């Protein structure tokens, strides 16, 4: 963390502010709606305590479904210019190493006072959307409200229940009518997804293995995060909410941080990759054509799809933050999501950009001046982009370190693997089980991406996160 330019420990002045901070009681006023009776729930990773959002959906008489996404009102306790705010701005993001989480905000806030924890009344920013049968959002709104999370649910349990007929999660079973609520949310999420696909949103599925550690901190396994209906539900809700927030701020002519993935400059290489797999893509960037190609590859060759996804992600390039004002409309959208208006607003406990967006929309709702000048927003956009890139490097490095530690005592073993990269830097492969990446340093001649090989583990270097294989 230090090498990547982060401040991993909370400064003393932050700790003093936290000690002096008392939870402001959630109280309704003329501008805050009381929505605590609605059947709110949250779905997140099983171990997550920094809960940024809750969800609710209700079917309307005409067949449309009204979706409400409640976002933790972090700004209520983290005031602009405070020591807590300054530290959050410095790091700009929480960093999840798999072994330890470095929270952007003090844990007393992010996992408690500003978290939408189960069974507690909390202040929230509500993004309301009306979704029709085609999956189009035909109306949206934003306002402040009080909410109550009736069920803290996990991706793993809800996904197993929805997709594989697993047991109903306790959080659903114990709350009357919660089953119908989650099924309504699932239905409208599918509507949103189908519309995104029709617009050219890309289906990508990379393998991300996170370390599993025992009580002593020793790496004992690598767990692969798998997609399921619960993850898809939240993803589709969050994308729709972020689009709605951007559109609302634009309508109010308020400055905003946009999240963009520009049209890929390396489209020619994407075309070449598709051609190698028997598909001709247009010569000019076309997200719909690319989406159809990816869908077909997922169906025809699921084993290699994660590796194709990684290649496409790298060629698309990273996302970045830009500033949009009423006088400078930004034409660039999010190529991978196939949307023109997009911001980050749904994770203010974890991303500083989302907290900035929250402050902007609250000021717009009150008709107050914007909390940041255009020059300040430009500096924040550049800094948040750089810090998120740095966070990804830390997280990727720690996954490599964990993998090297896990395999340290297995020198000489042979593994089934798939070649994932061939370049001037070397030939790389990913073992099937456990899913670890390493370099083939002997016998790599003639190998191509996608080849299935047997490799022998010949060396590991945990400090650098290196794993070396020899082809057998």
Key traits:
five-stranded mixed β-barrel, alpha+beta, 472 residues, OB fold (Dihydrolipoamide Acetyltransferase, E2P), 17 strands, 36% helix, globular, 3 domains, six-stranded mixed sheet
* Biggest beta sheet attributes: 6 strands, mixed
Total DSSP helices:
12
Whole-number average pLDDT?
A: 90
What number of domains? 3
Uncertain segments are none
Based on Cα principal axes, name the global outline. Answer: globular
State the helicity in percent bands. 25-40%
Q: Give the SSE string.
A: HEEEEHEEHEEHHHEEHEHHHEHHEEEEE
Note the gap between the termini: 37 Å
Round the Cα radius of gyration to an integer and report it.
Answer: 23 Å
Strand content: 15-25%
Structural class: alpha+beta
Number of strands: 17
Short synopsis of the structure:
This protein is an alpha+beta fold and 472 residues long.
Textual characterization of the structure:
The protein is an alpha+beta fold. It has three domains: 12-262 and 317-372, no CATH class; 267-316, no CATH class; 405-471, Nucleic acid-binding proteins (OB fold (Dihydrolipoamide Acetyltransferase, E2P)), CATH 2.40.50.140. It is built from twelve helices and 17 strands. It has helices spanning 12-20, 83-91, 107-113, 155-164, 170-173, 178-199, 229-251, 267-276, 287-300, 305-316, 352-366, 374-407, and strands at residues 32-34, 40-44, 53-59, 65-72, 95-96, 101-102, 121-131, 137-154, 209-213, 219-224, 256-260, 320-324, 414-423, 426-431, 437-442, 452-461, 466-471. Strands 1, 2, 3, 4, 7 and 8 form a six-stranded mixed beta sheet that branches. The protein has a five-stranded mixed β-barrel with strand order 13-14-15-17-16. It starts with 11 loop residues before the first helix and ends with a strand. The mean pLDDT is 90.
